[in-house]
Amino acid sequence: MKLRKNLRQLTKKQINKFAEGLSEQEAEQLYYDWYLWARDDQLPPNLQAQSAPFKPLNWRNWILLGGRGAGKTRAGAEWIRAMALGIAPFASKPAWRIALIGETFNDVCEVMLEGDSGLLHIHPEHQRPTYIASRKRLEWPNGAVAQLFSAEEPESLRGPQFHAAWCDEFAKWQYDTEVWDMLQFGMRLGDNPQIVLTTTPRNKKQLKDMLAMEGSFVSKASTFANKQNLAAAFISNIDQNYAGTNLGRQELYGEIIEDRQGALWQSEVIESLRRRQKDYDLTEFKRIILAIDPPATSHKKSNACGMIVAAMDENRHVYIIADVTMQTAAPIVWAKKAVEIYHQFNIDRIVAEVNQGGEMVETILRTIDSQISYSAVFAKKDKKSRAEPVAALYEQGKVHHLGMFEALEDEMCQFDHLIGSSKLSPDRVDALVWAVSHLHLNGGTNVPRIRDL
Length: 453
Prior knowledge:
Number of domains: 2
Largest sheet: 8 strands, mixed
Shape: elongated
Strand content: 15-25%
Number of strands: 14
Mean pLDDT: 85
Structural class: alpha/beta
CATH architecture of the largest domain: 3-Layer(aba) Sandwich
Number of helices: 17
């Protein structure tokens, strides 16, 4: 232990030089020693140098807020490995029952297990766990077991009990409160059951409540803290395009961006109106449309092509079904995507703004499919004036999101700032406004459904 502490004071180059004189077995042990290689923010609160002299030995929730590629997944996976195997100084004995929870079951498998920093890639051969897909579980050679759960199914956590849990990308969970509550009832094994939560933050009440809980400790890391493990081109691109923006502060620096005072939309309102997609049959909606806000150009720095699928029920409530916005796509590319979506969702009408493209928008769409139902809309008012009536419908509880649309919702809650920015354009919100306006405000209900003709 003393040697490991001394090695942590060395640079990676010095550690590598030290490793030259080791046997193959000793070198492997050094290579897989996470306590040696981890940054301070990637270690649990009781092991972080920055927490000295206060050492929170009995922490309950360790929350890692970090930018994209900051090393959150690796930190979470390494903590689970140490807990399952009882590796000091992380644990004094194995945590025999573990929960692994991701946004979807696919995310658990592809990120938490099989990703480059996932659990199946960070163990030496003799410690590597076995994934049993049919039972949705991971089994270590020493007998420790991790069960896999999707945050889309809160009830699946009813019953099992755990010593430890890892929750990944918590801020993206649609049913965060329900899943978190069910998990709490299951954290009842051992002397001090603990949860590590890794996420790029969003302005969500449940996340902020967790940060304020007694026994919760937070670590923060930016994308740039892990730049030695990321492509130089990636670092250059994101720094050039997102430095100084709210999106950059959130996605690169792991900051929680609060709603702007006076913004047209508030995250709590959107959250309160969210609905589960599985509770709705799309064929029962009265109308379904695809709204398009096409970009004026198609070069690398062009705005995105905003594309939103929305529907209306018999009570004239509007439902946002899908955000299929495309970045920097040539007209033929986004037009093909639009026609594909048109048939996929049995769309009644495509509605597209034509201020920039004029007749070109309809021409290119009909080149792909001459039978589509299409309406052109022309913006006579500025963006904010067009958006205000739509925001009012949210306040009245008449617009619902079927699922999570992170990029769209971030634009909505920062809309006032974005329309005054020279670098960013709220293309998703523009398409949303056209969709809701056509369905609820502009007489779109008078057009019959295609299948009724």
